[in-house]
Amino acid sequence: MQDNIFKNEKDLEDELETLTNYLSKYKASQDIAGIASELYKIGDILIKLNRFDEALNNLRESLRIHRELKDIVEESYVLAMIGKCLKLQKRYNEALESYKNAIKVIENNELEEQVLVYINYYGEIGKIYLKMGDYDNALKYFKITNEMHEKNIDKIFSDEFLRFQRVGKLGVADSLQNIGELYELKGDYDQAIEYYKQSLNYYDEIDIIDDKAIVLQKLAKIYRILEDYQNAYDVLKEASEIHYKFKDMRNFALDLEQMCEIISFEYPDEAIKLLNKCLQIYDQLSDKIKKAEIFRQIALIYREKEDLYTALEFHNKAMDIYQEYRINIAMARELRSIGEIMHDLNNNEDALEYYEKSLEIFQKLGNKIEIAGTYMNMAILYNDLQDKEKSINYIENAIKFADESNSDKLVAEFKKLKDEFLN
After folding, report:
1. Which terminus of the chain is less hemmed in, N or C, by CB atoms within 10 Å?
2. Does pTM top 0.85 for this prediction?
3. pLDDT 10s digits, 77-123
4. At 188, phi and psi to the nearest 5?
5. Superfamily in which the 327-423 domain is placed by CATH
6. Which residue intervals of 249-287 are DSSP H helices?
7. CA 60 → CA 54, 115, 117, 189, 324, distances in Å?
């Protein structure tokens, strides 16, 4: 579930400076409660800035003060924030302990109905277990969260409270989404779809459409895995409409990209139109890396259309950006793709030159699976040139590196190709 408060780094740094000034004033006036409150807020900002050690120092001092003041509710909040920080540091066992302590503070003092947000701490524990690969405990805590939110649906007095604390029907929707994600990770796609659809019903009912879009994207991923492309396209289209309405242009572009991947084979011209929209968006966002990715996608579509010169143009556009940012693996892939086009154009000397440049980069990176793929391209080229000795040599190298990459599928494919070369 997403945090609807987006701030850039400068805004966070400015807020941190303001909070630090307030902290100094509280210290000067010896306002202990004020000090504890500001330390908590500073810790929250430091987490968002990925300054985790500093955040923990502030939060632990805040916790010490709240315990001295016997401020039980605030103690629970701080423990949960410490848990969040530890989780982001992948210190999962410590994070679990902190969240469980936050729950104990509330339940031992019978403050459950006063602090409904604590129900979500069970969900956070479930997420940590999910990160640890402990699906049984993750499911256990997600279901506890869901049941507790369902029991408290009628205790929500305002939409603002519901959205801020993510409780009531929104809490139910979130927990159903978490359960769906768990089943997705386990590969139980039918169960995942069922829980995702249930969460969508709640998001619809309370009109939380930004979170609805997140679930739609997750459903699209599953539908594509199941090769149910029509449903995948439909949910992506719905997600794209939501993202466009909220002016979330990055996610809007990502939706369009996935829609293109689905329709590009049957409707290549329509896919190119959508990808051109993506280019406009990433240009506005000043994201040249994503532009390079889109250039590559457009190039691949033109290759399928057998418009090789236009494909070459877009591969070169992508290559220019990858060279500028020195993204070596992407450069190597573009070089290989250009080599493939040169081969298709019967410009075999240039094709071989591009393959060799690509291979050199992959070798420096130690990327065996990509090395195998490039050797395979070179083997096909020499086979077309009727140089059997070199074609066999290169395909054997391809088999060797595919085997070292534990890719049984590629090994079988390359061995079949070798047999074709020999016959």
Report:
1. C
2. no
3. 999 999 999 999 999 999 999 999 999 999 999 887 777 888 999 99
4. -90, 80
5. Tetratricopeptide repeat domain (1.25.40.10)
6. 249-263, 268-284
7. 10, 21, 21, 41, 44
